[in-house]
C-alpha cells in the first residue's frame, strides 16, 4: 500500500502561482511513477502531468504545458506540481496518484490516489 496526501491548494488570482505537494508513505516511493490529475465540477477527471520513478521523464497535458512543472524528491518521498500563470480554467480538485510502472496519462492505470486538494483561480 501507498498512502498519498496532497497539500498546497488554495485561492489565487489569475496569473499567480501555487505549488502543490504530495507526500507518500508506505511502500518504496522511488519504485512508483507519479501522476497529477484534476477534476473540475461537472467534468471528468483529467490528466495534468506525470513523472517517472527516476524523474528522468515527464509528460504534460497540452493545456498546462509550459506553465506547470512536476518534480520529485525520492529521498523525502515527495512529488511537487509547480503551477505558474494560473488561469480560471485551472480551477479544480487536484489529485496525485502512484503506479508501479512507467508513467501514464491514463487514470485507470494508477493504483493509489490521494484525497485531493482544491485549487481555485479567480479572474
Word description of this protein:
This protein is an all-beta fold. The protein has no helices and eleven strands. It has strands spanning 2-7, 10-13, 18-26, 33-39, 46-51, 58-60, 68-73, 78-83, 92-99, 112-113, 117-122. The strands form two sheets. Strands 2, 4, 5, 6, 9, 10 and 11 form a seven-stranded mixed β-sheet that branches. The mean pLDDT is 96.
Overall body shape: globular
Radius of gyration equals 13 Å
Helix content: under 10%
The helix tally amounts to: 0
Oligomer: single chain
Average pLDDT for all residues: 96
Give a brief outline of the structure:
By secondary structure, this protein is mainly beta.
Protein traits:
7-stranded mixed β-sheet, 4-stranded antiparallel β-sheet, 51% strand, 123 residues, mainly beta
Spell out the blueprint of helices and strands:
Blueprint: E1 2-7, E2 10-13, E3 18-26, E4 33-39, E5 46-51, E6 58-60, E7 68-73, E8 78-83, E9 92-99, E10 112-113, E11 117-122
Parallel strand pairs: 2-11
Antiparallel strand pairs: 1-3, 3-8, 4-5, 4-9, 5-6, 7-8, 9-10, 9-11
Amino acid at each position: 500500500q501507498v498512502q498519498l496526501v496532497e497539500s498546497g491548494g488554495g485561492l489565487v488570482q489569475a496569473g499567480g502561482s501555487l505549488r502543490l505537494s504530495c507526500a507518500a508513505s508506505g511502500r518504496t516511493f522511488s519504485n512508483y511513477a507519479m501522476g497529477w490529475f484534476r477534476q473540475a465540477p461537472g467534468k471528468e477527471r483529467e490528466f495534468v502531468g506525470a513523472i517517472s520513478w527516476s524523474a528522468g521523464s515527464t509528460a504534460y497535458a497540452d493545456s498546462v504545458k509550459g506553465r506547470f512543472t512536476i518534480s520529485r524528491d525520492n529521498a523525502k518521498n515527495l512529488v511537487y506540481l509547480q503551477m505558474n500563470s494560473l488561469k480560471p480554467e485551472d480551477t479544480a480538485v487536484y489529485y496525485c496518484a502512484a503506479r508501479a510502472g512507467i508513467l501514464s496519462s491514463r487514470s485507470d492505470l494508477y493504483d493509489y490516489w490521494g484525497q485531493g486538494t482544491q485549487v481555485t483561480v479567480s479572474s
